[in-house]
Amino acid sequence: xxxxxxxxxxxxHHWVDVTDDEFPVVGDCRRNPPVLTGSDEDRSILRVDERxxxxxxxxxxxxxxxxxxCGEFRQGGTP
Length: 79
Description:
The chain is elongated and about 50 Å long. The chain has 79 residues and is mainly beta. It has strands at 12-17, 25-29, 35-37, 47-48, 55-56, 58-60, 63-65. It is 0% helix and 30% strand. It has no helices and seven strands.
């Protein structure tokens, strides 16, 4: 049985190699738009916009290991 993991999925964006054998590669699942994080109540996760010097919310894709999997796998190629 072949396991379809993020590492070979078209929606997965690889961004770092980790030397730990347990988690060899890390990236973002970009199947869906980034999720908005941050709020006025939780300023610890707000970022400063360098152009305006204002605090802003930002979005993030879920970070995953290349060996993880989900139910929306699509073989690498064109999304």
